[in-house]
Design a protein that fits this description.
Structural class: mainly alpha
Number of domains: 1
Number of helices: 9
Organism: Aliivibrio fischeri (Vibrio fischeri)
Order of helices and strands: HEHHHEHHHHH
Largest sheet: 2 strands, antiparallel
Protein name: Integrating conjugative element protein
Shape: elongated
Radius of gyration: 22 Å
Length: about 220
């Protein structure tokens, strides 16, 4: 009887989640939380919810969700590479006779976050890169290390890049079907095929999965 209760207690455990705080120093980063109703990309909050939903579906063997995470990871990796490369091309923070500290907001905004997915944590790391870069280019322009034209070009490209990552969760969806449904070609699979198109074979056969995709849970 004790063993049964212990087993039931384990089965009743909830999913993992964590709270975090992010200190934001740029106006452009703040706007990601409230982009407006006409924005072609979701807010950070909606992104976190969508990423958690996709991970849950992928864990339950939804190949469409697996493909969505694979594409999301690809876009995220491109964005990380973009910010790292562009940060490295900024003027040095020290010259032969002059050095200066990192520029920060005198009144930064602290965001409290509830994150329940791996891709949510990846997004927070990416937003941190974005925030650092936006502050660095503003500081470099203020200190006459970047021209106004170069500053505006870098700013525009940087904002478009982070928006493209947020938009990615609107491109691919989870379907509610499993790989087993597709192999059986049942009614659910046919409906998913009509709504979302075919799943790439390499994803269906699990040859390609996102590095941060969850372990697939199958009923034995």
């Amino acid at each position: 009887m004790k063993q049964t209760n212990k087993k039931n207690n384990f089965q009743g455990l909830g999913s993992l989640g964590s709270e975090a705080k992010m200190t934001v120093h740029s106006v452009e980063t703040i706007r990601l939380w409230n982009p407006g109703n006409k924005a072609p990309f979701p807010s950070v909050g909606r992104f976190l919810t969508a990423a958690s939903t996709l991970e849950h579906a992928a864990r339950n063997d939804d190949p469409y969700a697996d493909f969505a995470l694979l594409e999301l990871e690809r876009v995220m990796n491109e964005a990380f590479a973009f910010y790292n490369e562009h940060l490295s091309t900024l003027p040095a923070m020290m010259t032969a006779r002059l050095s200066f500290s990192e520029c920060l907001s005198s009144h930064p905004h602290v965001k409290t976050l509830r994150i329940s997915s791996r891709f949510g944590w990846r997004m927070m790391a990416l937003i941190e890169c974005f925030d650092v870069y936006m502050v660095r280019i503003a500081d470099a322009q203020f200190k006459a290390q970047l021209t106004r034209t170069e500053f505006e070009k870098r700013r525009y490209e940087s904002i478009r890049k982070i928006e493209s990552v947020l938009h990615q969760v609107l491109v691919h969806k989870h379907s509610g079907v499993t790989r087993s449904d597709i192999l059986q070609n049942n009614a659910k699979a046919e409906q998913a095929l009509e709504a979302f198109g075919p799943v790439p074979l390499e994803v269906l056969e699990e040859l390609e999965r996102a590095e941060y995709a969850p372990v697939i849970k199958r009923i034995s």
